[in-house]
Structures are given as structure tokens and as C-alpha cells.
Amino acid sequence: MSMSLKKRLWRIWSAFGGMRMERKLFVVFLLLITVPLSFIGYISYNNYSRSIEEKTIVYSTKMLENMMVRVDDYIEDMVRISSIPAYQDDIKQNLIRSNSYYEQRQLTSGDGSNPLPDDFDLLLSIQRGIEGNISFINTIKRGANSVYIFDQYGNGYYTTAGGGIRLNVKESYENWLERVKTSGGEAMLFSTQKYTSNLQSVRYAFTVVRKVIDKSLKPIGMIAVDANISVIEDQMSELDKVTNGKSVIIDELGNVIYDSDKERMATNIKDDPVVVQAAGAKGSFYFERDGLNRLYIYTTSPNTDWKVMTSIPVSELTKDAVVIRNVTWIATLITILVALLISTVLSFALTNPLRKMMRLMKSVQEGDFNVQFPVKYRDEVGQLGNQFNRMIVRIDHLIRDIYVMETKKKEAELHALQSQINPHFMYNTLESIRMAAELNDDQIAADMIAILGKLLRYSISDLHEEVTLADEAGHMRNYVEMLNYRYPNRFRLDSQIADGLGNYPIIKLVLQPIVENAIYHGMDDSKPSMQIKMSGERTPQAVLLRIKDDGLGMDEETLDRLNRSLAGTEEAGAKRKSGGIGLKNVNERIKLHYGNSYGLKVYSERGKGTEVVLHLPIEAGREAE
């Protein structure tokens, strides 16, 4: 088996495996029903067609043989009729008188003397004597419609009472005479000739010709017996009517004796492919002619060597078989449709419990555990349903336990984050106040303490509490202002929030830790100041908050490690740096509050600064699932 065929079969099997259960059952039922019925119908049709063909060949061959026997008998009768003059002294005496009369006339005209005058009385006596016998001969056998008797000088005697006399008698006589010269007195059979009768009609006839011999075996004339082709036509028409075919009779030289279509009468068809293929005494074969496949059946007369051949169109031959085939196919189709209807109902009935269980599973997948599969029977589906119900109950209990554990875990993590943030932030703030107090013992310290109060008041409440984006941005500005007391005019903050985002609800302390991280890890001592830009926008997918600085930035390896840590695909270092509350803590708080689809993404380039993008839900205030 070739690889391409294996791949094709594998694709078909894969497609079948991916079907729904009811479709699989439908395909199985379809194959189990259609394949056997189609096979049985095909075998029945072929056997019936073959049986009809064999019987038609046997029957047609038998009819052809019987028909040729009748034709042979008729020709034998014509041969006997041609021998009548040999036993009729009256005919022979008149022929002798005719020969003598014309011999004398030939002699007198040959020696130069005056020719004898016509003896009309003698000629009339001879003619009446011979034609009277011809009329008698015509009554002996039906079909011998024309009998011609000639003397040795080619003078013909015949009767026109029945009509059908050849106009070319003289020409026909010469043709017959040429062939019977060496016959020795035996009858010779001439194939069908076409001629025009004295009634000006075109006729066809085959002829038996024999010499007329006296008692001394000396030829004294010739007799020709014409048989009208209608003698054969009646029998051949009966054959064609039975077989719905066309027939032809040819002699041993290929001359057409009879043709059902009358198109090839009295012609020679020995080179016709059908005649060439019809070798042997009898047989049958198929041959296509004029775009139509035909069955040819032929047999040969042992007496005359005439071959009769009939051609039957295969469409006519198998007409009854086609009717039987069509009836069989219609019955098969109806049976298949009924069976498929039943199989469809059964397949849906068998797979309906499975589809119901699939719908229940989808409900469970969407979070609804208050489902129950109705168990009606103790079969395999019923047992599967019982196990499904037990599994749902068990999963529901486990989810409840996990939910309680996760809630406690989140609360613990939030408290831990808050405990980390508060000391860290207060430490840095108090350090700033301490340094400012040492340098300026007046209003600056008071301003710093006032800002410190705002910062502490904002940060000591619950970190899970939501505030507006405007409040969070204000807290960020207070933080930068406090740092500018410590580092005069070192940091510039530019905040741009799109219209409508000022009231966007957000959890506390997500912007200030990012700014703090930017200052302490990205500040470039070679620059007199550091620019920090904060912007907010709403996209069709999320709310994006961007905090960008022009600090030191980071290399590609550090950036990649940081983003993978934020995405949860790589653990952070074994130890956090001191005060490591920055980006990771803010990212974890966002994910805990809004879900794992949200969080931070960092973009940076060494020497060109860093940009942190916060991805928040488009639906304001959406809680984490």
C-alpha cells in the first residue's frame, strides 16, 4: 500500500473519529444497510441480464436455424420446379421447334441468300405451348412468380399474367448463361438481383437457373425461376419483430440476399467488419455500430451456404432487465430511506443521554455545580450518570474548600504586603524630614510634615480599598513633592489622564511604588533632573496607565527576566532586595484584585529610560474572579 493511500485512509479515519456520536452511528447504519442491498441488487441485475442474453442467443439461434430450414425447403422446391421441363415432352418439343426455326433463319442469313420470312403461326404455336406450361408451373409453388424458358438462341418465353417480368430479360439471360455453361445440367442458385419489372416497379428476386436437356443429354435451352424476396421477408419480419432487431442474409461471396432495412439489397458487403467477424458456421458477438452496442447472432445454411445474421440492440436486449433493475433500485432506495429514518431515530435515542450529560458538563464548566443527571436505567449510560453525579458533588466540596483556603491566603498576602509597605514608606519619609530639618529649621519642615500627614493618612487604610484614579495620582504627586524637598528640583512629574478616567476606581498604592522604583533604580546622577510622565487611556480591551522615566533603563536580559517574573513564568531571586516592594508587589496586588489577565508590563532600553504599563479591566471596579 502506497504512502499516499495510507495518508488518505488515515485522514478519512481521523475525520470519522472527530464526528459526533449520532453521526458515527448514522454512518455505520448507512454502510450496513446500503452496501449489502446495493451488492445484492447489482448481482441480481447482472445475473438476470446474463440469463436474458444467454436465452436470447439460444432462442434467436434456433429461430434463425428454423427460418433457414424453411428457406432451404423453398429453394429445394424451386430446384424441383426447374427440373420440370426435363420431364415435360411438350416443353422440350417446343424448344426443339424454336431452335430449328431460329437455326434455319441463322443459316439463310449467313449464306447471303434471301432470309426466310417470319412464320408467325409457328412462333405463336411455340409460344403458346411453352407459356401454357409456364402458367402451370406458376401455380405449383407460391412465390415462384416468374418463370423464364429460353431456347439455345436466347429467345425467351414467359407469361405476364402475374406481372413482375424483368425488363432486362436479355441482359439477365446472358448473365445466367455465362455461369451455367459448365454446370452440367445441375441447378444453380443466383443471389438477389435488383430489377425493374414491366409494371415499372423496382423488385428484388433470387433465381434458380438450370439447363434444359433432351433425352440424348444435349442442351436444348435454359429455365430460370425467380423467387420474389417477399418469400424471405415474411419470415425475417417475424424474427425481427420477436427480437426487436435487424436481419440480413448473405451468400458465401458476401452478396446480400435480404436486408431488413432494404438499404443493402443486391450489394456486396464481404468487407464489412461485422461480416468479417462473423466467422464460422454460427455464433454470436458484440459490436458497436453508429454509437450503439449490438449483439450479433448468426448461423449458416448447410445446403446453400447462405448466412443469416440478426443484430439486436443491447438496450432492447436488456430492456426487461433494466425495468427489473429500476424496480429493484427503487425498492432498495425506499428500504434504505425507511431504514435510515429508523436508524436516525435510534441513533438520536441512544446518544440523547450522552448529549444531556455533555450539556450538564458545560454547565459545570461555566461554574454551575447545582446539576444532576437523571438516571433512568441500569445500563452503561446509567452507571456513567451515577459516577458523574458523585463526581460533581465531590468537585463542589473541593472547590468550596479551595475557595476558603484561597480567601484566607489572599487576606494573609494582603496583610503581609501592607506590613511591608508601611514600614518601608515611613522609613523613607522620615529620613527625608530628618535631612530637611537639619538643613532648614523653619517653614520647609512644616510643609514637609504637612505632606507627610497626607501620605500617612492615605496609606494606613486597607490596601484592598478602591479610590479614584485622580486620588491615586494626587498621592503620587505628594510623594514626588516630598522627594523634591530632599532633592531640590531633581524630579519633574507630568500627569495626563484622559477625560472620563479621573473617576475610574482603582486599588490604592499602585502608582506611587512604581514612581519610587523608577527613582531609586533608574535615577541617573549624570543628569541634573529626572523626568517622569504618567498618562492614562481607555482602549477597547483595557484601561492602560503608563509611567515613563528618562533614567538609566536596563539591558535586554534584565528586562526579559523581570517580565517573566511579573508573568509568573520565572521565580524572582532567592532573596528580595531590601525594601523590595516595587513592581512585583504592585503586580501581585493587581492580579489578586482583578484577576490573572491584568498586571504590569515593563519596556526599557539601556540609557533611554523605562516605561511601566498597567493593564486594568475596562469595566471600572471589576473584581477578580
Report on the structure:
By secondary structure, the protein is an alpha+beta fold. Among the domains are: 83-228, PAS domain (Beta-Lactamase); 428-617, Histidine kinase-like ATPase, C-terminal domain (Heat Shock Protein 90, 2-Layer Sandwich). Helices cover 53% and strands 19% of the residues. The protein contains 15 helices and 17 strands. The protein has a five-stranded antiparallel beta sheet, with helices on both faces. The longest helix has 62 residues, at 21-82. It is rod-shaped, with a radius of gyration of 61 Å. The two termini are 55 Å apart.
Cα-based radius of gyration, to the nearest Å: 61 Å
Number of strands: 17
**Low-pLDDT regions:** 572-580, 621-625
- The amount of helix comes to 40-55%
Quote the CATH topology of the domain at 428-617: Heat Shock Protein 90
Number of helices: 15
Structural class: alpha+beta
What is the distance, rounded to the nearest whole angstrom, between the alpha carbons of the first and last residues? 55 Å
Q: What would the principal axes of the Cα set say about the shape? A: rod-shaped
CATH level 4 superfamily of the domain at 428-617: Histidine kinase-like ATPase, C-terminal domain
Membrane topology: Multi-pass membrane protein
Keywords: ATP-binding, Cell membrane, Kinase, Membrane, Nucleotide-binding, Phosphoprotein, Transferase, Transmembrane, Transmembrane helix, Two-component regulatory system
Subcellular location: Cell membrane
InterPro entries: Bact_2-comp_sensor_kinase, dCache_1, HAMP_dom, HATPase_C_sf, HATPase_dom, His_kinase_dom, Sig_transdc_His_kin-like_C, Sig_transdc_His_kin_internal
